[in-house]
Amino acid sequence: LKVSVAPGGRWNRFKTYSTMQRTLEIWGFVFSFIFKVWLSNQKLSYKGEMTDEKKSQRRRVLAKWLKENILKLGPTFIKIGQQFSTRADILPQEYIDELSELQDQVPPFPSETAVSIVEEELGSPVEVIFDRFDREPIAAASLGQVHRAIIQGQDVVVKVQRPGLKGLFDIDLKNLRVIAEYLQKIDPKSDGAKRDWVAIYDECANVLYQEIDYTREAANAERFADNFKNMDYVKVPSIFWEFTTPQVLTMEYVPGIKINRIQALDELGVDRKRLGRYAVESYLEQILSHGFFHADPHPGNIAVDDVNGGRLIFYDFGMMGSITRNIREGLIEVFYGVYEKDAEKVLQAMFQMGVLVPTGDMTAVRRTAQFFLNSFEERLAAQRKEREMANAELGWKKPPSKEERIEKKKQRLAAIGK
Fold it and tell me: Which residues are catalytic?
Protein backbone atom coordinates (compact mmCIF):
# COMPACT_ATOMS: atom_id res chain seq x y z
CA LEU A 1 0.00 0.00 0.00
CA LYS A 2 1.25 3.43 -0.95
CA VAL A 3 -0.62 6.18 0.78
CA SER A 4 0.07 9.90 0.52
CA VAL A 5 0.67 10.76 4.14
CA ALA A 6 -0.49 14.08 5.41
CA PRO A 7 1.69 15.88 7.92
CA GLY A 8 1.15 14.46 11.39
CA GLY A 9 -1.63 15.92 13.50
CA ARG A 10 -2.54 15.42 17.14
CA TRP A 11 -6.13 14.73 16.10
CA ASN A 12 -5.07 11.17 15.19
CA ARG A 13 -4.38 10.39 18.85
CA PHE A 14 -8.09 10.63 19.64
CA LYS A 15 -7.93 8.52 22.82
CA THR A 16 -5.64 10.96 24.62
CA TYR A 17 -6.63 14.15 22.81
CA SER A 18 -8.72 16.47 25.00
CA THR A 19 -11.40 18.90 23.89
CA MET A 20 -9.34 21.79 25.27
CA GLN A 21 -6.24 20.77 23.33
CA ARG A 22 -8.22 20.52 20.12
CA THR A 23 -9.95 23.85 20.71
CA LEU A 24 -6.63 25.61 21.30
CA GLU A 25 -5.18 24.07 18.15
CA ILE A 26 -8.13 25.17 16.04
CA TRP A 27 -8.22 28.74 17.32
CA GLY A 28 -4.45 29.04 17.04
CA PHE A 29 -4.79 28.13 13.37
CA VAL A 30 -7.70 30.54 12.82
CA PHE A 31 -6.03 33.56 14.42
CA SER A 32 -2.76 32.84 12.60
CA PHE A 33 -4.63 32.76 9.29
CA ILE A 34 -6.59 35.94 10.01
CA PHE A 35 -3.39 37.76 11.00
CA LYS A 36 -1.60 36.60 7.83
CA VAL A 37 -4.50 37.77 5.66
CA TRP A 38 -4.56 41.13 7.44
CA LEU A 39 -0.79 41.53 7.06
CA SER A 40 -0.89 40.68 3.35
CA ASN A 41 -3.23 43.65 2.83
CA GLN A 42 -1.01 46.19 4.60
CA LYS A 43 1.06 48.47 2.36
CA LEU A 44 3.88 48.63 4.91
CA SER A 45 4.46 44.86 4.58
CA TYR A 46 5.54 45.23 0.94
CA LYS A 47 8.85 46.34 -0.46
CA GLY A 48 8.03 49.17 -2.80
CA GLU A 49 4.56 49.55 -4.25
CA MET A 50 1.75 47.14 -3.33
CA THR A 51 0.82 45.94 -6.82
CA ASP A 52 -1.85 43.42 -7.81
CA GLU A 53 0.90 41.03 -8.90
CA LYS A 54 2.58 41.19 -5.49
CA LYS A 55 -0.74 40.69 -3.72
CA SER A 56 -1.49 37.68 -5.88
CA GLN A 57 1.91 36.20 -5.02
CA ARG A 58 1.18 36.72 -1.31
CA ARG A 59 -2.14 34.94 -1.74
CA ARG A 60 -0.43 31.99 -3.42
CA VAL A 61 2.01 31.65 -0.51
CA LEU A 62 -0.75 31.98 2.05
CA ALA A 63 -2.97 29.50 0.20
CA LYS A 64 -0.18 26.92 0.32
CA TRP A 65 0.24 27.53 4.07
CA LEU A 66 -3.52 27.11 4.49
CA LYS A 67 -3.54 23.78 2.63
CA GLU A 68 -0.63 22.39 4.67
CA ASN A 69 -2.27 23.35 7.96
CA ILE A 70 -5.63 21.94 6.91
CA LEU A 71 -3.89 18.61 6.34
CA LYS A 72 -2.42 18.80 9.84
CA LEU A 73 -5.85 19.51 11.35
CA GLY A 74 -7.26 16.32 9.88
CA PRO A 75 -10.56 14.93 8.52
CA THR A 76 -13.02 17.71 9.40
CA PHE A 77 -10.88 20.44 7.89
CA ILE A 78 -9.80 18.35 4.90
CA LYS A 79 -13.43 17.77 3.98
CA ILE A 80 -14.36 21.43 4.47
CA GLY A 81 -11.30 22.48 2.46
CA GLN A 82 -12.45 20.27 -0.39
CA GLN A 83 -15.89 21.86 -0.31
CA PHE A 84 -14.36 25.34 -0.41
CA SER A 85 -12.20 24.34 -3.39
CA THR A 86 -15.29 24.71 -5.58
CA ARG A 87 -16.41 28.05 -4.13
CA ALA A 88 -14.87 30.62 -6.45
CA ASP A 89 -17.67 32.93 -5.32
CA ILE A 90 -16.11 33.01 -1.84
CA LEU A 91 -12.35 32.57 -2.24
CA PRO A 92 -9.77 34.14 -4.59
CA GLN A 93 -8.47 31.90 -7.39
CA GLU A 94 -5.12 31.35 -5.67
CA TYR A 95 -6.91 29.60 -2.80
CA ILE A 96 -9.11 27.59 -5.17
CA ASP A 97 -6.01 26.31 -6.99
CA GLU A 98 -4.35 25.12 -3.78
CA LEU A 99 -7.43 23.65 -2.13
CA SER A 100 -8.35 21.76 -5.29
CA GLU A 101 -5.11 19.83 -4.81
CA LEU A 102 -5.98 18.99 -1.24
CA GLN A 103 -5.32 15.30 -0.78
CA ASP A 104 -8.07 13.41 0.95
CA GLN A 105 -5.49 11.02 2.36
CA VAL A 106 -4.06 10.59 5.82
CA PRO A 107 -2.10 7.73 7.35
CA PRO A 108 -4.10 4.48 7.60
CA PHE A 109 -5.07 3.46 11.09
CA PRO A 110 -3.86 0.08 12.44
CA SER A 111 -5.30 -3.01 10.77
CA GLU A 112 -6.08 -4.47 14.19
CA THR A 113 -8.34 -1.50 14.86
CA ALA A 114 -10.11 -1.94 11.51
CA VAL A 115 -10.68 -5.64 12.19
CA SER A 116 -12.01 -4.84 15.67
CA ILE A 117 -14.50 -2.31 14.23
CA VAL A 118 -15.70 -4.78 11.58
CA GLU A 119 -16.17 -7.54 14.15
CA GLU A 120 -18.00 -5.27 16.57
CA GLU A 121 -20.29 -3.87 13.88
CA LEU A 122 -21.06 -7.19 12.16
CA GLY A 123 -21.16 -9.28 15.31
CA SER A 124 -18.74 -12.08 14.41
CA PRO A 125 -14.99 -12.66 13.87
CA VAL A 126 -13.79 -11.72 10.38
CA GLU A 127 -12.74 -15.34 9.82
CA VAL A 128 -16.36 -16.37 10.23
CA ILE A 129 -17.90 -13.56 8.17
CA PHE A 130 -15.47 -13.57 5.24
CA ASP A 131 -13.82 -16.28 3.18
CA ARG A 132 -10.83 -13.95 3.15
CA PHE A 133 -10.17 -10.51 4.64
CA ASP A 134 -6.99 -8.63 3.66
CA ARG A 135 -5.69 -6.85 6.71
CA GLU A 136 -3.61 -4.38 4.68
CA PRO A 137 -5.87 -1.61 3.30
CA ILE A 138 -5.80 -0.87 -0.42
CA ALA A 139 -6.71 2.79 0.17
CA ALA A 140 -6.86 5.20 3.08
CA ALA A 141 -8.64 8.54 3.31
CA SER A 142 -9.63 11.06 5.94
CA LEU A 143 -12.88 9.34 6.88
CA GLY A 144 -11.92 5.69 6.58
CA GLN A 145 -9.97 3.01 4.78
CA VAL A 146 -10.77 0.20 2.37
CA HIS A 147 -9.87 -3.50 2.65
CA ARG A 148 -10.32 -6.20 0.01
CA ALA A 149 -12.16 -9.35 0.98
CA ILE A 150 -14.04 -12.35 -0.37
CA ILE A 151 -17.50 -13.14 0.91
CA GLN A 152 -19.71 -15.99 -0.27
CA GLY A 153 -17.25 -16.47 -3.12
CA GLN A 154 -17.52 -12.88 -4.36
CA ASP A 155 -14.78 -10.25 -4.46
CA VAL A 156 -15.76 -7.29 -2.31
CA VAL A 157 -14.26 -4.24 -0.65
CA VAL A 158 -14.98 -3.33 2.95
CA LYS A 159 -14.92 0.35 3.86
CA VAL A 160 -14.19 0.84 7.55
CA GLN A 161 -14.77 4.17 9.26
CA ARG A 162 -11.91 5.80 11.11
CA PRO A 163 -12.35 5.41 14.90
CA GLY A 164 -13.33 8.43 16.96
CA LEU A 165 -14.57 10.36 13.93
CA LYS A 166 -17.94 11.47 15.29
CA GLY A 167 -16.35 12.69 18.54
CA LEU A 168 -13.80 14.66 16.53
CA PHE A 169 -16.57 16.16 14.37
CA ASP A 170 -18.53 17.15 17.47
CA ILE A 171 -15.55 19.09 18.86
CA ASP A 172 -14.52 20.62 15.54
CA LEU A 173 -17.98 21.68 14.42
CA LYS A 174 -18.77 23.26 17.76
CA ASN A 175 -15.69 25.44 17.31
CA LEU A 176 -16.38 26.04 13.63
CA ARG A 177 -19.85 27.35 14.45
CA VAL A 178 -18.30 30.02 16.69
CA ILE A 179 -15.72 30.77 14.01
CA ALA A 180 -18.47 31.20 11.38
CA GLU A 181 -20.31 33.65 13.63
CA TYR A 182 -17.06 35.54 14.23
CA LEU A 183 -16.29 35.74 10.50
CA GLN A 184 -19.83 36.93 9.85
CA LYS A 185 -19.13 39.93 12.08
CA ILE A 186 -15.61 40.85 10.90
CA ASP A 187 -15.78 40.08 7.17
CA PRO A 188 -15.97 43.51 5.45
CA LYS A 189 -17.02 41.91 2.12
CA SER A 190 -15.10 44.69 0.42
CA ASP A 191 -14.74 42.51 -2.69
CA GLY A 192 -18.51 42.66 -3.24
CA ALA A 193 -19.10 38.98 -2.44
CA LYS A 194 -22.19 38.13 -0.40
CA ARG A 195 -20.77 35.56 2.02
CA ASP A 196 -23.06 34.10 4.66
CA TRP A 197 -20.55 32.28 6.85
CA VAL A 198 -23.17 30.78 9.16
CA ALA A 199 -25.13 29.35 6.21
CA ILE A 200 -21.89 27.96 4.78
CA TYR A 201 -21.15 26.34 8.14
CA ASP A 202 -24.64 24.78 8.30
CA GLU A 203 -24.20 23.29 4.84
CA CYS A 204 -20.75 21.87 5.64
CA ALA A 205 -21.85 20.41 8.98
CA ASN A 206 -24.85 18.72 7.40
CA VAL A 207 -22.69 17.12 4.69
CA LEU A 208 -20.05 15.93 7.16
CA TYR A 209 -22.50 14.15 9.44
CA GLN A 210 -24.16 12.54 6.43
CA GLU A 211 -20.82 11.23 5.17
CA ILE A 212 -20.10 9.26 8.34
CA ASP A 213 -23.32 7.25 8.05
CA TYR A 214 -22.38 4.45 5.66
CA THR A 215 -25.95 3.15 5.44
CA ARG A 216 -26.89 6.49 3.90
CA GLU A 217 -24.02 6.18 1.42
CA ALA A 218 -25.17 2.66 0.54
CA ALA A 219 -28.72 3.94 -0.09
CA ASN A 220 -27.32 6.74 -2.27
CA ALA A 221 -25.33 4.20 -4.29
CA GLU A 222 -28.40 2.06 -4.92
CA ARG A 223 -30.49 5.07 -5.94
CA PHE A 224 -27.74 6.22 -8.30
CA ALA A 225 -27.41 2.72 -9.78
CA ASP A 226 -31.17 2.50 -10.33
CA ASN A 227 -31.12 5.83 -12.17
CA PHE A 228 -28.54 4.43 -14.62
CA LYS A 229 -29.85 0.87 -14.86
CA ASN A 230 -30.61 1.24 -18.57
CA MET A 231 -27.27 2.84 -19.46
CA ASP A 232 -24.47 0.34 -20.00
CA TYR A 233 -21.73 2.96 -19.92
CA VAL A 234 -22.14 3.60 -16.17
CA LYS A 235 -21.29 1.08 -13.43
CA VAL A 236 -22.00 1.37 -9.69
CA PRO A 237 -20.70 -1.32 -7.27
CA SER A 238 -23.47 -3.43 -5.75
CA ILE A 239 -24.12 -3.11 -2.02
CA PHE A 240 -24.01 -6.09 0.36
CA TRP A 241 -26.60 -4.88 2.87
CA GLU A 242 -26.23 -7.87 5.20
CA PHE A 243 -22.66 -6.75 5.86
CA THR A 244 -23.23 -3.00 5.99
CA THR A 245 -23.72 -0.78 9.07
CA PRO A 246 -23.26 2.94 9.80
CA GLN A 247 -19.51 2.32 10.24
CA VAL A 248 -18.85 -0.58 7.84
CA LEU A 249 -19.77 -0.60 4.14
CA THR A 250 -19.38 -3.77 2.06
CA MET A 251 -19.72 -3.54 -1.69
CA GLU A 252 -18.79 -5.26 -4.92
CA TYR A 253 -15.13 -4.99 -5.94
CA VAL A 254 -15.05 -3.20 -9.31
CA PRO A 255 -11.48 -2.23 -10.24
CA GLY A 256 -10.71 0.42 -12.81
CA ILE A 257 -8.24 3.02 -14.03
CA LYS A 258 -8.54 6.58 -12.69
CA ILE A 259 -10.19 8.75 -15.30
CA ASN A 260 -7.24 11.18 -15.37
CA ARG A 261 -4.62 8.52 -16.17
CA ILE A 262 -4.55 9.27 -19.89
CA GLN A 263 -1.67 6.99 -20.87
CA ALA A 264 -3.17 4.01 -19.04
CA LEU A 265 -6.53 4.62 -20.73
CA ASP A 266 -4.84 4.71 -24.13
CA GLU A 267 -3.06 1.44 -23.37
CA LEU A 268 -6.42 -0.06 -22.42
CA GLY A 269 -7.72 0.93 -25.86
CA VAL A 270 -10.41 3.28 -24.58
CA ASP A 271 -11.80 5.86 -27.01
CA ARG A 272 -11.19 9.01 -24.96
CA LYS A 273 -13.47 11.17 -27.11
CA ARG A 274 -16.36 8.80 -26.55
CA LEU A 275 -15.46 8.53 -22.87
CA GLY A 276 -15.57 12.32 -22.56
CA ARG A 277 -19.01 12.32 -24.16
CA TYR A 278 -20.16 9.66 -21.70
CA ALA A 279 -18.89 11.73 -18.78
CA VAL A 280 -20.74 14.85 -19.97
CA GLU A 281 -23.91 12.92 -20.74
CA SER A 282 -23.85 11.15 -17.38
CA TYR A 283 -23.76 14.46 -15.53
CA LEU A 284 -26.43 15.99 -17.71
CA GLU A 285 -28.59 12.98 -16.88
CA GLN A 286 -27.86 13.35 -13.17
CA ILE A 287 -28.53 17.07 -13.03
CA LEU A 288 -31.27 17.60 -15.60
CA SER A 289 -33.16 14.30 -15.54
CA HIS A 290 -32.61 12.62 -12.17
CA GLY A 291 -32.12 15.69 -9.99
CA PHE A 292 -29.69 13.57 -7.97
CA PHE A 293 -25.99 13.90 -8.68
CA HIS A 294 -22.57 12.80 -7.46
CA ALA A 295 -21.21 15.89 -5.71
CA ASP A 296 -17.59 14.77 -5.28
CA PRO A 297 -16.43 13.84 -8.81
CA HIS A 298 -12.65 13.98 -8.38
CA PRO A 299 -10.47 11.40 -10.24
CA GLY A 300 -10.31 9.14 -7.18
CA ASN A 301 -14.08 8.67 -7.39
CA ILE A 302 -14.43 7.99 -11.12
CA ALA A 303 -12.62 5.15 -12.88
CA VAL A 304 -12.80 3.41 -16.24
CA ASP A 305 -12.65 -0.25 -17.28
CA ASP A 306 -12.73 -1.89 -20.72
CA VAL A 307 -16.29 -3.21 -20.54
CA ASN A 308 -18.29 -2.07 -23.60
CA GLY A 309 -15.20 -0.33 -24.92
CA GLY A 310 -14.87 1.93 -21.89
CA ARG A 311 -17.28 2.18 -18.98
CA LEU A 312 -17.47 4.82 -16.24
CA ILE A 313 -17.27 3.45 -12.69
CA PHE A 314 -18.52 5.72 -9.91
CA TYR A 315 -17.32 5.28 -6.32
CA ASP A 316 -17.99 6.98 -2.97
CA PHE A 317 -21.58 8.18 -2.67
CA GLY A 318 -21.19 9.93 0.66
CA MET A 319 -21.57 13.40 -0.85
CA MET A 320 -24.57 13.70 -3.14
CA GLY A 321 -26.60 16.68 -4.32
CA SER A 322 -30.28 17.10 -5.13
CA ILE A 323 -32.00 19.55 -7.47
CA THR A 324 -35.73 20.23 -7.44
CA ARG A 325 -37.76 19.84 -10.62
CA ASN A 326 -38.31 23.60 -10.76
CA ILE A 327 -34.56 24.25 -10.74
CA ARG A 328 -33.89 21.47 -13.27
CA GLU A 329 -36.38 22.91 -15.72
CA GLY A 330 -34.96 26.37 -15.12
CA LEU A 331 -31.44 25.17 -15.81
CA ILE A 332 -32.56 23.56 -19.05
CA GLU A 333 -34.13 26.84 -20.14
CA VAL A 334 -31.01 28.82 -19.13
CA PHE A 335 -28.71 26.64 -21.20
CA TYR A 336 -31.15 26.49 -24.07
CA GLY A 337 -31.35 30.28 -23.97
CA VAL A 338 -27.54 30.44 -24.04
CA TYR A 339 -27.54 28.15 -27.05
CA GLU A 340 -30.06 30.35 -28.86
CA LYS A 341 -28.48 33.61 -27.63
CA ASP A 342 -31.88 34.57 -26.25
CA ALA A 343 -31.29 36.87 -23.28
CA GLU A 344 -35.01 37.10 -22.48
CA LYS A 345 -35.28 33.31 -22.19
CA VAL A 346 -32.26 33.19 -19.89
CA LEU A 347 -33.63 35.92 -17.65
CA GLN A 348 -37.11 34.36 -17.46
CA ALA A 349 -35.55 31.04 -16.43
CA MET A 350 -33.49 32.77 -13.76
CA PHE A 351 -36.65 34.45 -12.46
CA GLN A 352 -38.32 31.03 -12.38
CA MET A 353 -35.46 29.59 -10.29
CA GLY A 354 -35.42 32.56 -7.95
CA VAL A 355 -31.84 33.47 -8.88
CA LEU A 356 -32.92 36.92 -10.01
CA VAL A 357 -35.76 39.08 -8.77
CA PRO A 358 -37.41 41.19 -11.50
CA THR A 359 -37.37 44.94 -10.92
CA GLY A 360 -39.25 47.79 -12.52
CA ASP A 361 -36.73 48.47 -15.30
CA MET A 362 -34.82 45.42 -16.54
CA THR A 363 -33.36 47.13 -19.60
CA ALA A 364 -29.79 47.30 -18.28
CA VAL A 365 -29.93 43.70 -17.11
CA ARG A 366 -31.18 42.52 -20.51
CA ARG A 367 -28.43 44.42 -22.29
CA THR A 368 -25.77 42.92 -20.02
CA ALA A 369 -27.16 39.42 -20.54
CA GLN A 370 -27.26 39.87 -24.31
CA PHE A 371 -23.68 41.16 -24.35
CA PHE A 372 -22.61 38.07 -22.38
CA LEU A 373 -24.43 35.73 -24.77
CA ASN A 374 -22.96 37.41 -27.84
CA SER A 375 -19.47 36.62 -26.55
CA PHE A 376 -20.20 32.95 -27.29
CA GLU A 377 -21.21 33.62 -30.89
CA GLU A 378 -18.04 32.54 -32.66
CA ARG A 379 -17.67 29.33 -30.68
CA LEU A 380 -21.31 28.39 -31.10
CA ALA A 381 -21.26 29.18 -34.82
CA ALA A 382 -18.28 26.87 -35.32
CA GLN A 383 -20.13 24.01 -33.65
CA ARG A 384 -23.67 24.68 -34.90
CA LYS A 385 -23.42 22.74 -38.16
CA GLU A 386 -22.11 19.64 -36.44
CA ARG A 387 -24.82 19.78 -33.78
CA GLU A 388 -27.62 20.35 -36.29
CA MET A 389 -26.45 17.37 -38.34
CA ALA A 390 -26.38 15.22 -35.20
CA ASN A 391 -29.85 16.41 -34.19
CA ALA A 392 -31.19 15.70 -37.70
CA GLU A 393 -29.90 12.12 -37.44
CA LEU A 394 -31.91 11.72 -34.25
CA GLY A 395 -35.04 12.49 -36.24
CA TRP A 396 -36.39 15.37 -34.21
CA LYS A 397 -39.31 17.18 -35.79
CA LYS A 398 -41.38 20.21 -34.83
CA PRO A 399 -43.24 20.46 -32.59
CA PRO A 400 -41.54 17.97 -30.22
CA SER A 401 -43.10 16.62 -27.06
CA LYS A 402 -41.89 17.99 -23.72
CA GLU A 403 -39.79 14.85 -23.17
CA GLU A 404 -38.26 15.13 -26.65
CA ARG A 405 -37.58 18.82 -26.06
CA ILE A 406 -35.74 18.10 -22.79
CA GLU A 407 -33.72 15.32 -24.46
CA LYS A 408 -32.88 17.62 -27.36
CA LYS A 409 -31.68 20.30 -24.98
CA LYS A 410 -29.45 17.81 -23.16
CA GLN A 411 -27.88 16.78 -26.47
CA ARG A 412 -27.24 20.41 -27.31
CA LEU A 413 -25.76 21.05 -23.88
CA ALA A 414 -23.45 18.10 -24.38
CA ALA A 415 -22.28 19.62 -27.65
CA ILE A 416 -21.69 23.00 -25.99
CA GLY A 417 -19.70 21.29 -23.23
CA LYS A 418 -17.25 19.64 -25.64
Answer: 296
